[in-house]
Structure formats: C-alpha cells, structure tokens
Specification:
Layout lengths: L4 H25 L2 H5 L4 H27 L1 H6 L2 H23 L10 H26 L6
Length: 141
C-alpha cells in the first residue's frame, strides 16, 4: 500500500491539532501562571500574546495543510516554498525542544513522559513530511 503525499500532508495537518491540544494543557502542567506571577505585568502580557500568536500560527498551519493538501502536493513553486518554510519552522522547533528546553522537572508522571515522547516523534515527522513535499522526490510523484 502506497500513501500519497496529499494524505501525508493531511496527517501533518492533524498533527498540528494535536500540538494545539497539548498546548492547552501545558500551562497547567508546568504551572505557568505561578511562574509568570513574579514577572512585571508587561512581560507577563507579552508572554501570553506570544503564546496566543504561536497557537494561532499553528492552527493556521493546520487549516492550510488540511484544506490545501492536494494543492501543496501538486508541487507548484508557491506550494513547495510554503512546505519548505514549514519544514524549516518545525526543524527549528525540534532543535529548540531537543537542545534548549529542559522539561525533566515537569515530566513527573508516566502520562507526561509518554506525551513528551509522542510530541517529540511528531516534531521529527513534520519536517520530514514538509521537506518531502518541498523537494517532491520522484518516488512520491
């Protein structure tokens, strides 16, 4: 059975929704409000604006990828450029998670550790799917 690039892209779009769901739980899991309470109001507000803005971007990536999976898979110059951008975006995000963030203090339950592993797997898969769409190797056409 061969999976089409459009189907892989639709799966990637659904993975974004999983990231949004995880993002909704994250503030409670890491006690974000408690940590932010010591910051000046402007910095606290700035953080929440960035957090919301990133969530909006991920939701937009999801909608674009799901709704236009066939268009992205068709390989126009714009589609390939957008997929290249998404591949770079998720590669940078994976690198930040792997080399910058220290989540060990928050991975205190088996469910948290499992969720962390699932998210990291998805962070690896998304750049691969988008990179494939960007370069469109012969075996995918």
């Amino acid at each position: 059975m061969r999976v089409s690039l459009a189907v892989l892209l639709q799966i990637a779009g659904l993975v974004h929704l999983g990231f949004l769901a995880a993002g909704l739980f994250m503030p409670r899991v890491v006690r974000m409000r408690w940590h932010l309470a010591t910051l000046p109001p402007f910095i606290r507000q700035l953080f929440w604006v960035y957090y919301t803005f990133i969530g909006f971007c991920i939701a937009s990536f999801s909608v674009i990828t799901i709704a236009f999976a066939h268009t992205l898979a068709a390989g126009s110059a714009l589609a390939r450029a957008l997929c290249a951008f998404f591949a770079v975006f998720w590669t940078i995000r994976w690198c930040a998670g792997a080399f910058v963030f220290d989540l060990e203090p928050y991975l205190i339950t088996r469910a948290h550790r499992l969720g962390y592993r699932v998210l990291n797997t998805a962070f690896v898969c998304l750049p691969i799917i988008y990179a494939l769409a960007a370069v469109r190797p012969e075996w995918l056409r």
